[in-house]
Inverse folding.
């Protein structure tokens, strides 16, 4: 079933540039579309960095793709609903 996600937090092991990550969604696991966040933020080591999608994402699959070297410790996805 499709899931709704409005926000994601990322905890990185080491610092990474703001443009290191790309967010993508898919309904079938084969065709992916890029999903925009409100701001690309640099990742600080051992700190949680929040990302908010410009529009809530409704998809069966959501992935983060690294376009530069990045080491992640944790990703958390949220549906903050009307709290946005």
């Amino acid at each position: 079933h499709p899931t709704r996600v409005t926000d994601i937090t990322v905890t990185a092991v080491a610092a990474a540039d703001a443009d290191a990550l790309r967010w993508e969604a898919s309904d079938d696991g084969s065709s992916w579309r890029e999903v925009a966040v409100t701001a690309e933020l640099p990742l600080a080591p051992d700190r949680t960095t929040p990302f908010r999608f410009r529009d809530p994402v409704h998809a069966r699959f959501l992935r983060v793709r690294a376009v530069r070297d990045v080491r992640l410790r944790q990703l958390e996805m949220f549906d903050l609903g009307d709290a946005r």
Observations:
- The chain has a mean pLDDT of 93.
- The radius of gyration is 13 Å.
